[in-house]
# Entry
Amino acid sequence: MAVDSSLAEMHWKHDILGSIEVGIVVLDKAFNVQMWNQFMENHSNIVPRMIQNKNLFEFFPEIDKEWFTRKAAPAFSLKSPVFIIWEQRPYLFHFDCSRPITSQAHHMYQNITIFPLASLTGQVEQVCLVIYDVTDEALSRLGMQSLNRQLEKISQVDGLTELYNRRFWEEQFDMEFKRNKRSESPSALIMLDIDHFKKVNDTYGHPSGDEVIKALAGIIKKATRETDIAGRYGGEEFAIMLPDTPVASVEFVAERIRRLVEKCTVVYNKIPISFTISIGIAGFKHTYKDSTQWLDTADKALYKAKNMGRNQVALIE
Amino acid sequence: MTTPVLICDDSSFARKQMQRAIPDAWDVDISFAKHGKQALEMIRAGKADVMFLDLNMPVLDGYQTMQVIKDEDLPTLVVVVSGDVQPEARARMLALGAIEFIRKPVDNAKLVSVLAKFGLYLGESSANKRAEEVKPTTKNSYIEKLDAYREMANVAMGQAGESLAQLLGEFIDLPIPNVNLITNTELHMAIADIQRNESVSAVSQGFISAGINGEALVIFNDSNFSNMVKLLKYSGNENSGSLELEALMDVSNILIGACLRALSEQLHLVFSHNHPIILGRHCDLDDILKTTTQRKEDMLAVEIAYSIKSQNINFDLLLLFPNESIDLVFDKLITPHF
# Structure
């Protein structure tokens, strides 16, 4: 009777190891496999008797031997459990993912635990590897990260021109203003706007107006440096912040943009459209109380350019 | 003949634990000191033929105290009783003239074998009577409670430090743990200034056993990573981002693993721990801690600010116990185990 019940117990314990949806592998110090449960057998297509007492690395060339030996070392030497997360390496064993059709993953993402097994000598002779399938968790985490990146981009960039939108541009401008307050290097601000834009819209229609705005944004991108901060400030109004740039150089940049626009022809529905812009420049002054004051000055310069007859660059120093 | 014995430890919990371990039949006159300066006065007053000396203490720590004893050739036999169990700590103290080094937590069996080894006491080992006599730490005293937690953290910190020292091959400087009862919204207060306004990365792992649960956090200052990666001597040509992640995981595995093992020993439990989670990488400390549930109850926060001075590396181990666990931990700590 006693033998029967212990035999029965052995059976159901064996069943547990077989049915449990995690991989269980026991390894000795030389990384020879001592135990290989059903999960491992099913996912690797290697039955226990094939791999029993064989070296793990021979069967799984995808495992970085040096790296894994290093990871497992504390379990042997310090009797410390080791946790490896999928962010470190997506998987230890290259298994297919559990839902081969509807899952977006090409492999199973795995979290791994390596823990020491007690032995009679007090030394750790064997460790147990537990392999968790965390594909769904990993995918949702990765999906969220890429979604966050997209959202961040959407919240910063103007859809039509792909320049910064007004809100984000103002944030950047405000930070730049504060930086200028602390530093000695000169910076300048450009405000520009399309001359008689309403006429373009009225004459050729709004889709043509959009094409004009896009063309102008393209010119601004081409004419500015990577460190310059360009944004769409209003409908046809743009703002460019140029850090560490003396006003003289800014005038040069502004003049270049003006000339490029003058020479540019936008063709929409086979109709060629020419347009011009007016540009105002304001250099940074330590007397500005806040960033708005600086912005107002650039705006005044823009009006000056308009009053001078448009298609001009005006400067307030 | 009565032997004057001095127990020098900043923790009242640790002093009592030491006192309870002393065999009933050893004829001793026990005095106490809270730090090295007090201890030196008492040695000079002839109250310490034998001294049990802690290492990490305010005012004058164990190393400094031992140095004075050596320099002035003071008449006392010093047995170090320390949470810091790194081989270098042991070697330094033995080199200064300590006769033996006992790992905390001290108990009757450990003590008796040391006393026997040096012929200080060879009689009956039982300490039951003394254990009963020593007033247990009272449950209602806030200060004594915190002291018990601090001592628990001290031992855990030492063992975690020892494992890490072994992994890195460097001496780890151990602080005095910072223990506070705080509310969840004040969690940021649990962390010392070193991590303020810095970009940090953090790992969290939960643990639970017998109704006691908690969370262990390892918080790294991002500017320390390159030095840490160097210490770990990674080979291969992976990019620095993935090496940083490896370093973060390797160090937190060792620290949290050893720390929980030490807690298990002291609380006589076996903790199960879940898989670690990256709380955040390259972000503001406040952002990491902001995402916690806004529970109003108190929690116990133990901050251990490890450093490796020679490499200019600092990192924090934070042990957090929610309200429901705090008293259970305390009960386990003061319940004697024979």
Q: What stands out?
A: Chain A touches chain B through 18 residues (CB under 8 Å). The mean pLDDT of chain A is 91.
